[in-house]
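Students often ask why inverse folding is considered easier than folding. One informal answer: many sequences map to the same fold, so there is more than one right answer. In these notes we will look at a single instance of the problem. The structure comes first.
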């Protein structure tokens, strides 16, 4: 028998792509190198797909690299992919761009609603300083924050979910059955969350379930099962409110 949203005690969130509009942030941060090269042949979709390719590779190859430095390397690889001239200044600016990435318009209001019903926890691939800047846009205080900087590896590595489950037990006294992992990315979040035995809520902002286009998150060969699917955070918040 499937469980209701209200069964769970904690929502564990991916941040970027779910709460923060990282695709807009990534594409905005890529504009300076396009401008420097007078390039008008690279569109947003191509840029985001290149980001997904090189971010995935870099996270796999350098799991202990701090996220700003990782983004610097990704920018250099993206520029080379499109035959664009870049330099350390442009690469570093892209690497430092996370604090500039905007929140989705519904995130803060939805989180304030959900905070009435759940504990809220972050499991993010960025570093702590990067998330702290984003948190200022999200309007709530999270009950716990776990990052790749803490884990020493990037999602989808299983170590992230092992770390999450172990620390929720020690920090908040919660077990796996209390957790609803809430995220946009199938690659970073839903595939490894299901392997870890967690219930999941897909925030399908790209509308992949309806034939939407892949973007900054790598494709997966097979879509994992979903306990809940919503197209926005506010849709999830309203569904929760309707049950209380």
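Output (designed amino acids):
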């Amino acid at each position: 028998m499937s469980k209701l949203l209200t069964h769970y005690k904690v929502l564990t969130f991916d941040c970027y792509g779910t709460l923060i509009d990282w695709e807009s942030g990534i594409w905005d941060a890529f504009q300076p190198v396009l401008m420097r090269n007078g390039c008008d042949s690279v569109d947003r979709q191509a840029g985001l797909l290149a980001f997904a390719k090189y971010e995935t590779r870099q996270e796999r190859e350098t799991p202990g690299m701090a996220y700003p430095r990782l983004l610097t390397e990704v920018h250099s690889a993206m520029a080379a992919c499109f035959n664009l001239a870049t330099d350390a200044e442009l690469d570093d600016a892209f690497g430092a761009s996370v604090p500039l990435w905007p929140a989705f318009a519904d995130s803060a209001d939805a989180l304030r609603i959900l905070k009435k019903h759940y504990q809220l926890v972050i499991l993010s691939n960025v570093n702590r300083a990067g998330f702290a800047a984003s948190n200022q846009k999200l309007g709530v205080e999270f009950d716990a924050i776990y990052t790749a900087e803490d884990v020493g590896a990037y999602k989808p590595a299983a170590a992230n979910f092992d770390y999450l489950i172990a620390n929720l037990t020690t920090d908040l006294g919660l077990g796996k059955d209390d957790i609803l992992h809430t995220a946009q990315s199938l690659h970073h979040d839903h595939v490894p969350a299901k392997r870890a035995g967690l219930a999941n809520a897909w925030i399908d902002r790209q509308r992949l379930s309806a034939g939407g286009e892949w973007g900054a998150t790598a494709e997966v060969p097979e879509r994992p099962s979903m306990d809940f699917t919503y197209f926005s955070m506010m849709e999830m918040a309203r569904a929760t409110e309707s049950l209380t």
